Amino acid sequence: MSRLDSALLAPIKASERLLETLLFGYRLPVACVFLLVTLFLGWQAVQIRPDASFVKMIPSSHPWVQNYLEYRDDLAGLGNSIRVVVAPTEGDILDKRFQQTLKEVTDELFFISGVDRSALQSIWTPNVRWTEVTEEGFVGGPVIPDGYDGSAQSLEALRVNILRSGQLGRLVANDFGSALIQVPLLDRDPETGNRLDYQHFSEQLEALVRDKYSSDKIEIHITGFAKVVGDLIDGAVQVALFFGIALLVTLVLLYLYSHSLTGTLIPLLCSVMAVIWQLGLLRLLGYGLDPYSMLVPFLVFAIAVSHGVQIINTVRLEAAAGACKFTAARNAFRSIYIAGVTALLSDGLGFVTLMVIDIQVIRDLAVAAALGVMVIVLTNLFLLPLLISWTGVGKRAIHKARHGKEHSAVIWRALTRFARPRGALVAVACAVGLALVGVQAGQSLKIGDLSAGAPELRANSRYNLDNAYITAHYANSSDVFVVMVKTPAEQCSSFETLQRVDRFQYYLGNVAGVQSSVSLVDVAERVTAGLNEGNPKWRSVSRNQYVINSSLRYIPQGLMNDDCSLMPVIVFLEDHRAETLTRLASAVERFASDYSSDDVQFLMAAGNAGFEAATNEVIADAQYKMLIWVYGVVSLLCLLTFRSIRTVICIITPLALTSLLCQALMAQLSIGVKVATLPVIALGVGIGVDYGIYIYSRLNTFLKQGMALPQAYFETLRSTGKSVAFTGLTLAIGVVLWVFSPIRFQADMGLLLTFMFLWNMLGALILLPALTCLLNPVRAPYKNAVTQS
């Protein structure tokens, strides 16, 4: 270990001396460089824009998603799409004025940039048709009758055409109470070539459709991925409000803690600078802010404040010992540097471990968080001591540091009981009990969404109310799972293929959670029966290929590709809960293993439910892999810094306990592990490890001076422990306000982060010294050591 120490830590110590000389030997030039960089990155930061992409939200390298991407052009409308429902408040859709409104809404949607116009479906689009068997054969046409003029006869013809088209329950509500417009979207704007701007698209939907056509007689309901993202971005704008509130709360509490105006404003200034630098660097690197990474700037601010408080506290103590403001700042930098760099490296590398998750939006979040930690090293570990060397912390703060220790001495003496064998055993026993409770309660933790609609939004949000309306009034739900049946060219309509797909659809009908399914088979069977006087006995797949070919003269768009080598089976589900998706995916895999061949292959998956099933698989696989990586990286850095496995156990065990309890809390609150919540544990570990590293670093310093463990811990609490407790409480108060956010996933993250901030703080203050006491029995406490101190 001594070789490792000299090889790895010696450069860090050398860099400490070099940076100390640079910072405090050339203060004004260095400060000017920081100012210029801040101005430049601030200009970049104000130009950063919300950024969201459908492909970024799904695991693009997952085999199921790869199947979709390969055949995306053949699956129009089965990927990213929205559904717009126009509903009269009174009566039904067979009304002249309503039909005029429906036509205008359809036209409005058709011309919105980003819409796949060729695949848009409404009863007013020519690609939605009806067919009927007559004495003269098949007849058909568009659902809107020729010569439609809104008269009673035209409306009656429209009603008949809707019934004959098979669109009742699909594009028309079961009770004729509303009409639906299916709007497939393109990933890129065909006019500009840029990725679809979901915020702008959502704003257009609101302005050009909902606001324009809603009235006391018409209601508009909109669902789909693009609308969810748009609502998330609109709601996430309120993050700025919560950030402002957190800033004010931190300002007040930091002043009450430091009793110094400069000791309050400078850490906050440096922490805000860290956020500005992070946003500016993201803009320079070509990143935007998606709905999930919008929360990262606050976490960067929180980590920066945590480290800033440690530096201000150390400066106060140095000044109270008699050092001038320049010397106090320099000594603070020297004493904080190694522990601070270690903690921030642990944070950054812990965030980087999120890269193991094959979902681009999480990887972008990892990049944003890692960049934020990198700039904290510059703004808070370097710039903050530099600025405070000019201003100092003020006489009142120094006076409080000298004479205010006894006010909290009772609390610190009480905590030193956990640094004695008896108290340590009690603390460890309680920790073991909590760990067992966490493991047991965490068994019910689920992967994926646990409720209908969009769980990222509140249950009473407009989107979820719209989704509930559509689910209640239409036979086909908005949760669509698509299985792709791949065949050689011109073979998707062969008897062997259709017979196998027919069996597959019957099989799906017996899977719990499946509402219905649609494929080319349904067209062939319906037309075959129609060719035989509508006799239901003929509603099956004919063995005669000529009959099949005759039945498929007209095929609705989207049920096969141009060369008849791909046939989608569209499965409508009751919901998109994780259990439903897992059950269906397992059923499809079983069928595919039994019936797939070289000529007919059943491939998953497209549709919003298909993508979510793939995402759930990736998250289930990456969840514990991510934890292993984050704890492995943090443990390795702690080992390199303190050169003791026992020390690593003391620092990591409280974090592991917090992770277990956080998972148990998620299970009890019915919060599933998904894209929005998976990063929380890694983020919590990254922030929580700072507490343990700072406390153990200071504790180790006192132990090396020959103090007994209780006395050393008492001195640690009076210095670093106080700032750790303050930071944990301040950050918890800041993020707990998120529970009032209109975005449910932000409220969930606020609750979970509050829990992790508090438990990590308590673990560092109680469990860490207890483990240190039990794992280092040679450091027996001296009798009355604390009292004498």
TrEMBL record:
User: Cross-referenced SUPFAM superfamilies, in alphabetical order?
Assistant: Multidrug efflux transporter AcrB transmembrane domain
Keyword annotations of the record? Cell membrane, Membrane, Transmembrane, Transmembrane helix
Membrane topology annotation: Multi-pass membrane protein
Where in the sequence is the signal peptide annotated? none
InterPro entries membership: MMPL_dom, Mycobact_MmpL, SSD
Q: Where in the cell is it found?
A: Cell membrane
SSD domain span = 268-390
Where would you find the membrane-spanning parts of this chain? 21-43, 235-257, 264-286, 292-315, 336-357, 369-393, 423-442, 626-642, 649-671, 677-697, 724-745, 751-775
Pfam families hit by this protein: MMPL
GO CC, sorted alphabetically, is: plasma membrane
Protein name (database record)? Transport protein
From which source organism is this entry?
Marinobacterium lacunae
